[in-house]
Amino acid sequence: MLGPLQRLGRWGLGVFERLGRGHLFLLRILLSLGVAVTRPRLVIKELYSVGVLSLLIIAVSGLFVGMVLGYQGYITLVKFGAEEALGSVVALSLVRELGPVVTALLFAGRAGSALTAEIGLMKTTEQLSGMEMMAVDPVKRVIVPRFVAAFISLPLLAAIFSAVAVMGGYFIGVGLLGVDAGSYWSQMQANVDFYKDVMNGIIKSLVFGFVVAWIAVFEGHDTVPTSEGMSRSTTRTVVHSALAVLALDFILTGLMFGDI
Amino acid sequence: MTPHRGRLRLAGFVRRETPPSARAGIAHRPVQRFPPIDTQPHNDTLVEIRDLHFSRGGRPIFKGLSLKIPRGSITAIMGPSGTGKTTLLKLIGGQLKPERGQILVDGVDVHRQGLADLYRLRRRMGMLFQSGALLTDLSVFENVAFPLREHCKLPERLLRTLVLMKLESVGLRGARDLMPSELSGGMARRVALARAIALDPMMIMYDEPFTGLDPITMGVIVSLIKRLNDALGLTSILVSHDVQEASSIADYLYLISDGQVVDAGTPDELETIASEWSHQFLKGLPDGPVPFHYPAPDYLTDLTEGR
Amino acid sequence: MTTRTIEIAVGIFVALGLAGLFMLAMQVSNISEYRNTDGYTVHAYFNNIGGLKVRAPVTVSGVRVGRVTAIRYDPERYQARVEMTISANHDYLPADTQASIYTAGLLGEQYIALEPGGEDDVLVHGSEIYYTQSAFVLEEIIGRIMVNMTTH
Ligand SMILES: Nc1ncnc2c1ncn2[C@@H]1O[C@H](COP(=O)(O)OP(=O)(O)O)[C@@H](O)[C@H]1O
Ligand SMILES: [Mg+2]
């Protein structure tokens, strides 16, 4: 009868244990961040695999999301004769929400899982252990450059996503459905506030970048060194990143836009 | 690569050949920083393990293990799979912490060092992992260059010379541009060996260097270990369960089982004075003190119980 | 993949990201309003500002000349004090200019419309606009009409 309770308790303890280990690991990363400054080449190399290789999927997704927004926004707005407001509707939903959130979700799937798999494989094949024995700290040499690269990449990718999507909305709204080009841009500028909307969106993507980068490198470093362990930890990276991003988005939205 | 064709050229060994400038560049920090804990100076023991206790997942692996590894020799530590040989090497390298007991390397208690001192100590220890543990995203050349690039600021030309010399000493100078995925198991182990001697360590730990190799490659590795040890004045710790190969090159053997040293001696001594267990292990007999059967309840009752 | 190609690709990536940020700032948002902060600040008191918000436009004959920078309630005068910044090139507004709060469209945003007077002195930094007309509050007007209708 107490079986389920015990299992719940064990699960809870496991969660807290992992959280604790995750935070200790984060502390080690933060204490070793200096290496990103002293050896920028390591970060540049990771920026390639984390950022550049995510560029295509982010840009294409951005284009489609923007076009869908333009289309759906138009259908709704035209009922109220307010289709000039299309620009502000598209831009506000992008810079406040969709840009940071969708980019973070795609990024977790594309780059986060790859980071976890790569680090996990290095652990499984004893490459990390081997580095330690060569007196090279794997946290500095392997983890920190990847963490920093992911942290930098996400805000840049989110900005690219939003910019491309705004143009996607323009193609559909102005090019296809005949909204006036002037009002598309001027309504946008009149209603999107730089500090309140754009900056808050950037802050969101910085937070998401931090969290996704953290989860990805932690899961990789914490992998159980078997093939099953690796597949579990890559899955966990995607699932946990997605949940963390959505939950944090809710909290941040409340903090940033809750006062109106 | 057969042993006679890929003959090990001693000229390739670095200690003799390195120009003074290179030696200065990669000179080890003075060891004297660490005050010897042992009282007697100039002792001949490089590694000493005292009363080591360690357990994993609640299961004790070492229960009061003690042994000494003399300088300049090849010492083999042998035991069945799962006795904790890899664990022992990781304990010596400071990657794991014992629950009780001490491990002294060159008079320094490995587990009483700060991280910086531990890393400094590790630069003088080479370790050859069972899998080779080559960095898969770097070429053979870059793998050997890796510890040099990380620890010494060398001009690129000097670095190239050093790396090629290390590769030459394991006979793989021609394979410098291959990626680790293109190497056979024996070649990967030789590259890892070249990498392990890149920083001119005082000792090398070999984890199961013979497993999974064909006889020819095995012969290459066996003679490499012997020759490197003699030419570089290294101390070698060889962990293995391959009785034949290990005893053919080892100066001294330790047999460990159940967390303790069971027998120790030169290969010849063990031949004659080994205990019953060691006899079974060394001769590879299927039954003896280590029973053929995993502990189980009585066979007949077990079979009839299900009714 | 040589180091050089990787570095170039990363350079392009970072440049694209910064271009995206730049576009969001310049083309999508109203940062241009924040940029030309060189201008002069005047204030005015209103009995009722309706739904006027900070950053609402300030116009002359419908042409935008500045924006509202601060709104607070003055407990001594029992009035709302509205501060607005007017760009430096519109330095010709007479001292007796009138400020009114209007609504753009039936349900749109509220803004301040300035109507130049005839004096020779002009508004300068720190001036007060004395002639003001409060926001048009629908309920108030309806209420007044009802009173008029019942008294007549
Ligand atoms: N990471 C680990 N966690 C828990 N137990 C381990 C771990 N690694 C090894 N072990 C256990 O420790 C024992 C010794 O392992 P190991 O040192 O690899 O043995 P050997 O190298 O002699 O074959 C084995 O029984 C193994 O199951
Ligand atoms: Mg082992």
User: Element order, helices and strands of chain C?
Assistant: HHEEEEEEEEH
Low-confidence stretches of chain A: none
Question: How many angstroms does the end-to-end distance of chain A come to?
Answer: 50 Å
The main pleated sheet of chain A reads as: none
* Beta-strand segment tally of chain C: 8
- Strand composition percent of chain C: 25-35%
Ligands = adenosine-5'-diphosphate, magnesium ion
Shape of chain A: elongated
Q: Biggest interface and which pair forms it?
A: A-C, 33 and 25 residues
Going across the major beta sheet of chain C, what is the strand order? 7-1-4-3-2-6-5-8
Rg estimate of chain A, integer Å: 21 Å
- How many DSSP H or I helices of chain C? 3
Globular, elongated, flat, extended or rod-shaped: what is the shape of chain C? elongated
Oligomeric state of shown chains? heterotrimer
* Count of domain modules of chain A: 1
How does the SSE layout of this entry go?
The complex is a heterotrimer of chains A (260), B (307) and C (152).
Chain A: H1 3-31, H2 34-38, H3 40-79, H4 86-124, H5 127-133, H6 138-176, H7 181-191, H8 194-221, H9 227-257
Chain B: H1 14-17, H2 20-25, E1 45-56, E2 59-70, E3 74-78, H3 85-92, E4 100-105, E5 108-109, H4 115-122, E6 125-128, H5 140-151, H6 156-169, H7 185-196, E7 203-207, H8 215-232, E8 235-240, H9 243-249, E9 252-257, E10 260-265, H10 267-273, H11 276-283, H12 299-305
Parallel strand pairs in B: 3-8, 3-9, 6-7, 7-8
Antiparallel strand pairs in B: 1-2, 1-4, 4-5, 9-10
Helix pairs in contact in B: 5-6, 5-7
Chain C: H1 3-28, H2 31-35, E1 39-46, E2 57-60, E3 63-74, E4 79-87, E5 98-103, E6 110-115, E7 128-129, E8 131-133, H3 138-151
Parallel strand pairs in C: 1-7, 2-6, 5-8
Antiparallel strand pairs in C: 1-4, 2-3, 3-4, 5-6
Magnesium ion binds next to helix 3 of chain B.
